[in-house]
Write a structure and sequence with these properties.
The complex is a heterotrimer of chains A (496), B (314) and C (304).
Chain A: E1 43-45, E2 48-50, E3 56-60, E4 67-72, H1 76-95, H2 98-114, H3 116-127, H4 131-152, E5 171-175, H5 181-194, E6 198-202, H6 209-220, E7 228-230, H7 235-243, E8 249-253, H8 256-265, E9 272-276, E10 282-285, H9 291-303, E11 315-319, H10 323-334, H11 355-370, E12 374-377, E13 392-395, H12 402-405, E14 412-418, H13 421-429, E15 433-434, E16 436-440, H14 444-453, E17 458-461, E18 476-477, E19 480-481
Parallel strand pairs in A: 5-6, 5-8, 6-7, 8-9, 10-11, 10-16, 11-14, 13-14, 16-17
Antiparallel strand pairs in A: 1-2, 3-4, 9-19, 12-13, 15-18
Helix pairs in contact in A: 2-4, 2-6, 3-4, 4-5, 9-10
Chain B: H1 3-10, H2 15-19, H3 30-39, H4 47-59, E1 61-64, H5 72-83, E2 96-99, H6 104-111, E3 117-121, H7 132-144, E4 149-153, H8 156-160, H9 164-178, E5 182-186, H10 195-207, E6 212-214, H11 226-243, E7 248-252, H12 258-272, E8 282-286, H13 289-302
Parallel strand pairs in B: 1-2, 1-8, 2-3, 3-4, 4-5, 5-6, 6-7, 7-8
Helix pairs in contact in B: 3-11, 4-12, 4-13, 5-6, 7-9, 9-10, 10-11, 11-12
Chain C: H1 6-9, E1 39-42, E2 52-55, H2 59-78, H3 81-97, H4 99-110, H5 114-134, H6 138-142, E3 144-145, E4 152-160, E5 163-167, H7 175-185, E6 190-196, H8 200-211, E7 220-225, H9 227-236, E8 242-246, H10 250-260, E9 266-270, H11 275-278, H12 286-291, E10 293-301
Parallel strand pairs in C: 5-6, 5-8, 6-7, 8-9
Antiparallel strand pairs in C: 1-2, 3-4, 4-10
Helix pairs in contact in C: 3-5, 4-5, 5-7, 9-10
The chains are: A alpha/beta (496), B alpha/beta (314), C alpha/beta (304).
Chain lengths: 496, 314, 304
């Protein structure tokens, strides 16, 4: 394609014939003031904001390390007050005609949509995730969850087979993680409220803002006082909630380690429990995969939300014939990912959520190297403040390495080879976890054979990290039990 | 599928493999492809990047008129527009003017000594349903008339009935007939049915010597789409990876707004990198697109939204 | 007119001159003795009846049982649903065929009246039939096709959880064990059960039924022994995916649940008594089956 071989040798060169050396998108920053964050936050108990008796603690912007606001530290007395408020509110809410609960939950969804930009900015500021994700995934999906479960509120008798009468469990304690603060609140609240339960919600200490903001929406939508209460603070607040004798149900999303302590703590009590815990998702790429899309799937699988996703495809199994090629393609693709200011609309990879999480990821990078795996990191300019980790690939990984077995919860991918489908299945299932898995192949029958064999609650074929309110989500084995989303997501909130 | 790669690992590739890599045979997943293409629409181009992108888009435009009603005067008018897309504005010229063979001479004369190339559709355009001999003579005639670039159509007749080697042989023959002119091979993706087939046709065209692979004639119902462009850019990327030879991509038909054009540039940028942001690697086959590119450019410069009549159309 | 042997007029309960029956364990489809060589004596309900010896399973027997159940799991889970149903149906047939023996055991060790024992057996067989029919319907009733907002085909199906620990009450003998075993096996789980005290002989007789009903080796493994001794080992064994326990002892619940946390085990608890619970319709509950299933959701793009 040189000019010499073409007819336009005689022509002067086109002024823009030479490509630019680089073509950075100009900063396109979402306005942080849209989030309008108050300097301090209180506890939401029984339909009013209550000052904490134990003071407040700061919540930080992970991208800068700066304080965004001060969050109330709930004490056992606050938790008790919240549970009692939920108990008081229960009969009226449970007896409200389903259609009335539905109407209010529809309103929640609508208001969330109307305020979507505000919530997206707020979530990005508090969590560190790219605005692209909070805008396109977290907030719309949160609204969609309320829509979906709103529609169930007056149809619960169709949810249980055999004509069983649908009855709410009662007072639900719900403890949610920091990786999708608003979305996890929606996953928990929407089905619980649709079924007529009342709730004490405990957001993660480092990401309480969107849940507290959601309270405004709930109120605006006409959710009666005491139906939802929000207590904020560190793990000890969650522990106080778990210990509280007034609960009928506890739902927890978080680490397997904490999930186990909760299950043990509830051992002697008639409290129904659902757990959505950790994972080490196996992502399997066959030689006959649609490779360009598979590479996108791998990226979506492990770098979505900086890999801080329980269902992340953090163990990549590539059929040996294409292992080198996939590595090559992956490295080139990762070089195009944009790491930086989460508020910038062109940012692909935001900040790591917190200092402890960042330290954990870093320690695993060291562990991986010590175990003999080979680390490659995408070139990225790391901002001077905040917590960051470039896309990281480990090759020469063996299944026994800790980086291939333990949940890192960061943008770190362990890459392993396999030769046959049987081997892929055996390796994929050789895990204490069983939350998610992915398969890439062009052959339909192979997909079903693999999907059947994988011991995981969610299997993505030729896609990864897809979520939908109608789609049940949850794990096998030590990834927990109970489902969120879909018809099955109602069951934890109805007596069975 | 990875025969070529595997052989690279074992033994030095034969010359034939080097020049004619077999189609990798990998499927294309429509949903994943379309989603990736759509996701790049939300790339935000602001201020100086947007201005630069609009100028790049203008520089990549093949200003096209392919009507039965085309006359020399119409073509001369188009050529003047090609050299200066908006009077009084410091905009780059377009890449080429694209006309039917009968009007090549007019275009050549008007664009003599300018950086704007003359392109001609010349292969029994748009259906390709003429004997090869006539299609080749069509090509040769356009080259002899002075065309710098030849846009040919593949035989969908041969492709759809499965005679892929015929498609390949014909493209090779066009390449030979085009001589020193650049060969753009139109796949007419809207008639191929699936992305798997688009990928295969694109690969065949690259292997047979195309300098550009082009989506469409603009004469059928389905023209260029972002997903099609992405699919073909990925083939160009993979082909270059296999052979070291860079092939350009031209999207044509139905692209009318600057926003669409910038979406394509984002796909180009993120698939082939900034080094491909040149009219040697990418083209827009369009006519009215140029108006909107100019309008948006002026809006960037003045900060005011433009009225339709602010940019005289041709 | 045939003349009756006067011995036949006596029920087996009173017979001490029949062939002695040895009850062993049911492990991996075989009937071994406890590796420990220990036994327990099951005393009859009436002084005139014969006692029996059952194995007193050890921790190692439990280990072997869980291992066998674990090995059997993939095959049983992948078996065609209809086949699983047919095997359970076959078990019901074989139970009926051994009616006299089962009724006899209830009378001898549980002190049941004959008509009650007959009714319990009928009920147990019905429960088994009810479950057998579920095998190839579970996916339709517990599964779903989910209308997601995008070009994906998305469906959810129930799959078995894994190896389930079954701890039935001591009485009645057969009915609770069957009522707990059937909902576990029907979806494709494998099981290890512990029958204690007077329930031992019925459990091992049911094992003989299973062994002649084409139930694949190791799908169900029956232990007999001392519940107090083995419960902690059931509770802590990480080979179990779930516990299915009938008990009236809150301490047992506590112990199982506390230890279950170590492996995030699924749990379902039932009351051990009264016997009327086991004789009621409540033992035909789809939720029992559901408790030992996992919902798997698969996504697949819809495109060309």
């Amino acid at each position: 394609m040189t000019d010499s071989k073409t007819g336009y040798a005689s022509r002067p060169p086109h002024p823009l014939a030479e490509p630019p050396e680089s073509f950075p998108y100009a900063p396109s920053r979402e306005d942080p003031t849209l989030a309008a964050i108050a300097k301090t936050h209180d506890l939401w108990i029984d339909g009013e904001w209550r000052k904490p008796r134990r003071g407040r603690f700061p919540t930080l912007n992970p991208a800068t390390g700066e304080e965004l606001s001060r969050i109330a530290l709930a004490g056992p007395a606050d938790v008790d007050r919240a549970v009692r408020a939920a108990r008081r509110a229960l009969p009226a809410w449970a007896d409200l005609p389903g259609v009335e609960r539905a109407r209010r939950l529809f309103a929640v969804a609508r208001i969330l949509q109307e305020r979507s930009r505000e919530f997206a900015v707020l979530e990005t500021l508090d969590n560190g995730k790219p605005i692209r994700e909070s805008r396109d995934v977290d907030v719309p999906l949160a609204a969609a969850h309320f829509f979906y479960y709103a529609g169930w509120a007056d149809k619960l008798e169709y949810a249980l087979p055999g004509g069983r009468k649908p009855e709410p469990r009662g007072v639900c304690g719900q403890i949610i993680p920091w990786n999708f603060p608003l979305l996890m609140a929606a996953w928990k609240l929407a089905p619980a409220l649709a079924c007529g339960n009342t709730v004490v919600l405990k957001p993660a200490e480092t990401s309480s803002l969107s849940a507290l903001r959601l309270v405004e929406v709930l109120e605006q939508a006409g959710i009666p006082k005491g139906v939802v209460n929000v207590v904020t603070g560190p793990g000890e607040v969650g522990a106080a909630l778990v210990r509280h004798e007034g609960l009928d149900k506890l739902a927890f999303t978080g680490s397997t380690e904490v999930g186990k302590t909760i299950q043990a703590a509830l051992a002697g009590r008639p409290v129904s429990l659902t757990l959505e815990l950790g994972g080490k998702g196996a992502h399997i790429i066959f030689e006959d995969a649609p490779l360009s899309q598979a590479v996108e799937g791998i990226v979506q699988g492990i770098f979505f939300n900086q890999g801080q996703v329980c269902c992340a495809g953090s163990r990549l199994f590539v059929q040996e014939g294409i292992l080198d090629e996939v590595m090559d393609r992956l490295r080139s693709r990762l070089a195009t990912l944009r790491l930086g200011d989460p508020l910038d609309k062109n940012t692909d990879l935001g900040a790591i959520h917190s200092l402890p999480q960042w330290e954990k990821i870093r320690s695993y990078l060291e562990i991986g190297k010590e175990e003999g795996a080979e680390l490659w990191q995408a070139p990225a300019e790391i901002p001077s403040r905040g917590w960051w980790c470039p896309p990281s690939l480990f090759s020469n990984v063996t299944p026994s390495m800790r980086i291939a077995r333990e949940e890192i919860f960061g943008p770190v991918l362990a890459i392993l080879g396999f030769r046959t489908p049987e081997e892929a299945l055996a390796k994929a299932n050789d895990s204490l976890y069983g939350l998610s898995a992915g398969i890439w192949t062009d052959k339909g029958s192979k997909i079903f054979e693999m999907a059947r064999g994988l011991r995981a609650g969610v299997v993505w074929a030729n896609c990864y990290n897809r979520f939908d309110p109608a789609s049940p989500f949850g794990g096998y084995k030590e990834s927990g039990f109970g489902r969120e989303g879909g018809l099955h997501g109602l069951l934890p909130y109805l007596r069975t | 599928m990875s025969a070529t790669r595997a052989s690279k690992n074992v033994a030095p590739p034969s010359l034939e493999e080097e020049v004619f890599p077999p189609f990798p045979g990998r499927g294309v997943d429509q949903v994943g492809l379309e989603e990736r293409a759509a996701s790049l629409r939300t790339r935000s181009w602001k201020r100086e990047t947007k201005t630069a992108a609009l100028e790049r888009a203008i520089s990549m435009t093949d200003l096209t008129t392919l009507e039965g009603a085309d006359t020399p005067e119409r073509v001369r008018r188009l050529c003047r527009r090609a050299l200066g897309p908006a009077p009084g504005l410091p905009l780059p010229p377009v890449a080429a003017v694209c006309v039917y063979p009968a009007l090549v001479e007019t275009a050549v004369a008007t664009l003599q000594g300018s950086p704007v190339a003359v392109a001609s559709v010349a292969s029994g355009f748009p259906s390709g349903q003429l004997p090869l001999r006539i299609r080749l003579s069509d090509t040769r005639a356009a080259v002899e008339a002075g065309a710098d670039e030849i846009d040919v159509v593949i035989s969908r007749n041969a492709f759809l009935r499965g005679d892929l080697s015929r498609v390949e042989d014909e493209v090779a023959a066009f390449k030979e007939a085009a001589g020193g002119a650049q060969l753009k091979v139109i796949l007419e993706t809207g008639e191929l049915g699936t992305f798997d087939r688009i990928a295969r046709a694109a690969w065949i065209a690259c292997r047979a010597g195309a300098d550009f692979i082009k989506t469409s004639t603009g004469k059928v119902r389905i023209n260029a789409t972002p997903a099609t462009a992405l699919c073909m850019l990925e083939i160009a990327r993979d082909f270059e990876r296999e052979t070291g030879r860079a092939v350009g991509v031209k999207v044509a038909g139905g692209i009318r707004t600057a926003r669409d054009a910038i979406h394509y540039l984002a796909i180009l940028h993120e698939t082939l990198g900034p080094g491909a942001l040149t009219n040697r690697r990418f083209r827009f086959g369009a006519s009215s697109l140029l108006d909107d590119l100019c309008r948006q450019w002026r809006k960037q410069k003045t900060g005011r939204y433009q009225a339709p009549e602010d940019i005289p159309s041709d | 007119m045939e003349t009756k042997d006067p011995r036949e007029e006596r029920t087996m309960t009173e017979r001490r001159d029949g062939v002695h029956k040895t009850y062993k364990l049911f492990l991996g489809g075989a009937f071994p003795r406890s590796e420990s060589g220990r036994h327990l004596t099951v005393t009859p309900a009436s002084k005139t009846a014969a006692s029996a010896q059952v194995c007193r399973a050890s921790r190692k027997d439990l280990r072997n049982a869980v291992e066998a159940a674990g090995k059997a799991f993939p095959g049983w889970a992948a078996a065609k649903a209809m086949l699983r149903g047919q095997i359970l149906y076959r078990m019901a047939e074989m139970c009926d065929a051994r009616r006299a023996e089962f009724v006899e055991l209830e009378r001898r060790f549980q002190g049941a009246r004959k008509d009650q024992a007959e009714r319990d057996l009928d009920h147990a067989i019905q429960v088994l039939l009810w479950h057998a029919g579920w095998a190839d319907k579970l996916a339709q009733v517990l599964g779903s096709v989910n209308p997601v907002s995008g070009p994906w085909f998305n469906f959810s199906i129930p799959e078995p959880s894994g190896v389930v620990a079954i701890l039935p009450p001591e009485r009645p003998g057969l009915l609770p064990l069957l009522a707990m075993l059937a909902p576990v096996l029907v979806s494709g789980n494998t099981a290890v059960s512990l029958s204690s005290g007077r329930a031992g002989p019925s459990a091992l007789t049911l094992a003989e039924v299973a062994a002649t009903s084409d139930l694949p080796l190791g799908v169900w493994n029956a232990l007999t022994g001392d519940r107090k001794e083995l419960l902690p080992h059931f509770a802590t064994h990480r080979g179990f995916a779930a516990n299915f326990c009938a008990t009236d002892d809150p301490e047992e619940v506590r112990e199982l649940r506390t230890e279950a946390a170590d492996h995030v085990k699924r749990e379902r608890f039932l009351p051990a008594s009264p016997a009327s619970f086991w004789r009621s319709r409540k033992v035909r509950d789809l939720e029992w089956i559901r408790s030992f299933t996992e919902i798997k959701t698969a996504w697949h793009p819809i495109g060309l």
